[in-house]
What does this fold into?
Amino acid sequence: MNNNIFADRINDVPRSFIREILKVAIDHSVISFAGGLPNRELFPEKELRQATEKVFDTYGKDIFQYANSEGFYGLREYISKRYHEKKNLDIPVDNILITNGSQQGLDLIGKILVNERDDIIIEEPGYLGAIQALSIFKPKFNTIPLHDYGLDIAGLRTVMSAKQPKIMYCVPNFQNPSGISYSEDNRSEIAEILKNTGTIIIEDDPYGELRYSGISKTSFKTLLPENTVLLGSFSKIVVPGFRLGWIAAPAHIMDKLIVAKQAADLHTTHFTQYIVYQYLKDNDIDAHIAKIKDVYGKQLQAMLNSMEKEFPDGVTHTSPEGGMFVWARLPEHTSSRKLLELSMQDKVIFVPGDPFYVNRQETNTMRLNFSCMNEDTIRSGISRLGKSINKLLRPLT
Amino acid sequence: MNNNIFADRINDVPRSFIREILKVAIDHSVISFAGGLPNRELFPEKELRQATEKVFDTYGKDIFQYANSEGFYGLREYISKRYHEKKNLDIPVDNILITNGSQQGLDLIGKILVNERDDIIIEEPGYLGAIQALSIFKPKFNTIPLHDYGLDIAGLRTVMSAKQPKIMYCVPNFQNPSGISYSEDNRSEIAEILKNTGTIIIEDDPYGELRYSGISKTSFKTLLPENTVLLGSFSKIVVPGFRLGWIAAPAHIMDKLIVAKQAADLHTTHFTQYIVYQYLKDNDIDAHIAKIKDVYGKQLQAMLNSMEKEFPDGVTHTSPEGGMFVWARLPEHTSSRKLLELSMQDKVIFVPGDPFYVNRQETNTMRLNFSCMNEDTIRSGISRLGKSINKLLRPLT
It folds into this structure.
């Protein structure tokens, strides 16, 4: 058997380098900043179990039957109401589709919108899951650099004047991998540039509720309602393992998404949808989110403080106001892959920047996750990582 | 907003005509042969609830975290062992991937194997879900007629001599929509024709365990192991609502499937996988399947007996040995859509053959489901349908 039996599209999908690195993390003495996992200690186990029992009591066999592709109405209504209460966004229940995490949202959006060789815009560095999902549809990626305040406006203008991108994929709040959030000004400028262009903004917002400082920013859905598709997820505020997310899209796009969802897997299991709905009904989710924010916020602070103390001059990093990641930059022409080789000897791992770029092999950047370990572990890991950086930068001393 | 924002691929996907018909079934006085639902009375509710409680007791928070893309090892091992015990097939655990029902299996297979304009083979009539899932990848469908004994061999030879089809999709046991099973001779002939051609057989077998008469037939996985990908599902033997199925594929294909699965939704929720695994471990699934077979077998017999009695001469039908569907054929040039219009007035619905053909609008065939209603209801529905057929064929009497 040779390799040419495969479709071209699958050969363009980058393998998850992160998966490979994470294999090292099985050794429990390794401090891993490489993952992107929520902290399991914060999973509402007891409450989800109670919700599950109530679902069995209330719905009986109905939860086991085939169900509609759009998802459980109660859960979609809850999402619609929460958008109204929290963001002043009016999104009809019919414009919400439940997906297997927001990762599936990306697959469905690629399927219905992206023809081969269509131009699309993505942040640099960009979310690896989006690069993987969208690569399947063989678009031309146009990367726009990220700054501390958001997307590079000149770069966006250049792309928009030369091309007609089908979509712009972005994570405006606490981006993965950088932790960067777009400023209000940056959002307005982007909206102004994209207005009347036909380019659809895919606003992926898995971390939006996890803000530890600063104030909430305006969604593109408010600025350009007809041109924006929102992706949301219960992974970071309830549990990731249920694989429950959603797409909020204008009606004409939703029509096609439902056709694609049906072809993809008929529907997401309603069983977990009923459980999460029951959990949300019976518990104070805002209090739960406050607890997560308190824990992650302190962990972030511990990481930033340690970096200031332990990393040598010339190493910079972002200062996220939320989310799960900090992005650090070594001096120019320094390889973060080489750093990983060194730090692994000292049992610290992270993700070098490479997989977050569409077209680069060797970078001086790295992603550090702070959500799934305590402050002491973070301090100890950053201290060891600082020593490895010093070793890399001054190999002879 | 106009329509040209969409990818070409999504415009080729047939909408589910069945969904539209099923809306009529909300009226409880309607007898619906249109669905494809397992009988909810047979769902092992109590046992699944016990299994769920045990999963909470045993695994705690681990079931809520992100997990591997391949699926829960225990469940994959169970599937591997069952293939060995029931079919004498040796399929390593690593060659099994858990999917969101076998529908997702079709999506992943299309993604990794089918380039635009690739030739593929599909049965006529064919499974609507496969037509929908594969249409996304814009293949050229080559349809091969089904006979009572299986696939048309002359038709297969013609296609294979003129083209190099990437895949042949088939449901050799109790096909949906026809109920037809391939005979042993038919399977051998097909395997002989496809041997050394590079065409991959996608053997979809959701109903294989639901045999009510006759003897089990040889899988293409036995006849052409390296060229066959098997799709399986818990939907018909446990419950459909969990959306759990699997793909069993040779290692070189599995590699790519895992990349595609990861890009599609990271992984299927392990929560329901643990529950089904626990259920299978603690209960006698063969006894449960025997119960389903007893019920469905009697319902099938009631339907066939009623058809013999109530349908006029000139109407033929298949005599399935298992599964969930019977396929009936009106006299040539008679429209089953027109029959549906008549029978709906008498509160009986079914699916006219049209959506099961890739390229036909007007057919004299129809699919009748017998799994989700009792024998009396079946008799009464077939009697009313017989009257509608008589009205259609002899409108003036």
